[in-house]
Amino acid sequence: MLLSLFLTGIAAVVPLATPRLIGIAVDQWNNGKFPESLLFPAIGILVVEVVSLILRHFKEYHSQTLVERMVFDLRCMLFARVDRLPASFYEKSPTGKLATRILDESRSVELHFLGVLSALVVAPVSLLGIVIVLSIIDWQLVLWAMLPVPLLYLLIALSARSIRRVGRLVRDRSESLSSTLHEQVGGIRTIQLLGGEEAEEHRFAGRAADYRSARREMANVTSWYYPALGLFMGMGTVIVLLYAVWSGSGREMTGGDIVSFIVYLGYLYGPLVSLSGANHALQEMALSAERIFEILDEQLPSEGSADVATDKTPEIECRGVSFAYHSGRDILKNISLTVRPGERIGIAGPTGAGKTTLARLLVRLYDPSEGRALLDGKELREYRLASLRKAVTLVDQEGFLFGLSIRENIRFGDPRAGEEDIRRIMALVRLEEVVRRHPAGMDAEIGERGVRLSAGERQRLSLARALLRDPRILVLDEATSALDIGLEREILSGIMAEKPERTTIVISHRPSALELCAKVYRLQDGGLAPD
């Protein structure tokens, strides 16, 4: 950082020698020293330009390296935060909006940081140098040249509020457009199957029109801003010329002084414009920072320091557990349940009864609104999340898969697992036939969200990934609903037989799956009772 600032400051000072060298050349020309009069200034200007070029190169390289490192750290920090936020956060934050904030807002910081850094370092240094040189030539003209400056900064102050207000609108509309696009692309099959192409095209066009309208409003604000700056710069030049004619001070200056003064006068307003441009960039950065800190300020789920014992299967207990979403209506009401180590229990119930909610409570995607969820007598929140979710693994109906190979998706459950363990798990969930059908075998790419696999194949792959973690407690939430009854029974029987000491909780609508469980409970109207 210090090196970049130093190089930026030096690069701002060196070019200030050029107008003075031009003035020297003009004076020597007027004194009849030609052609030798041009030799020294020409060489001097060449040296200044070469030195400036070298300084600007190193300044740009170091500044860009600094910014890229800063943006890299910012993006990684944002993703690390998002990666650990509770499930409740994602209920109110569309994925498209989050992607926009992680990528675009950090990109906005990158785009504007260099401009702000340059303006805040180069402009003051250049301005000070120019004022000193101009004062040596004629200090009174400098005072007259600065008359429009208060008007300039009044314009900056007045425009800052408008730029920030409209900039916030632009970002809101951009996030809305991004979220809509992300949702539509993800649901493209449903749109096509239900003939919703035209309706969705209109919805997207509406979001795009809203964004275009916001951009036009920003253009309307900024289109007056920079021309007004140019007007004030022109006013300064006119004032100086009129004063020089009226006072007669121009007659006391040499031709070289006049030329140098006019060139320096052009230089004088450049830093002022840079500082005003920095105002615009700072407003953009402030808006980006506002959205970035909305993520960073989100509270991470609390966790304790205890680890789940790895040498035995723990006991699960729910004591008077109730849970309500944001609507306030209790989904679960006073649930009490004890699951002994190694037990196989089933949970049935109608759609919307809270079966998935109960499963998510066991892995602390949510915490109870009332009551206590215990593991070996300790509340779940007393354990480290990583340790808890290693011991208790949930496989849900969706079974999200990554756009990687079959092997990489399975190994996501345990990156350290060897090939032998992977093959054993694949045999357990009957995945070998799926692999054999692909020429690339285990290295076959399955597409985004496993789009190249059938629903049943995706579920089996999700099961394999979970089993590779070797959990002490396995919670299956409709995890085999896409399989035919015979294959489902075969796989569930194999899973239960492989590790008799493992606790298995099967949540299902199917009697064929629940028949494998020693106890079956029914969840209905928020309450749990033996079926």
Structural account:
The protein has 531 residues and is an alpha/beta fold. The chain has two domains: 2-296, Up-down Bundle (ABC transporter transmembrane region fold), CATH 1.20.1560; 316-530, P-loop containing nucleotide triphosphate hydrolases (Rossmann fold), CATH 3.40.50. The protein is built from 17 helices and ten strands. It has helices at residues 2-13, 17-30, 36-82, 87-92, 95-145, 149-186, 188-193, 197-247, 255-296, 355-362, 385-391, 406-411, 419-428, 432-436, 455-468, 485-498, 511-514; strands spanning 316-324, 330-339, 344-348, 370-375, 378-379, 392-395, 473-477, 503-507, 519-524, 527-530. Strands 6-7-8-3-9-10 form a six-stranded mixed β-sheet, with helices on both faces. The longest helix is centred in the first third of the chain and has 51 residues, at 95-145.
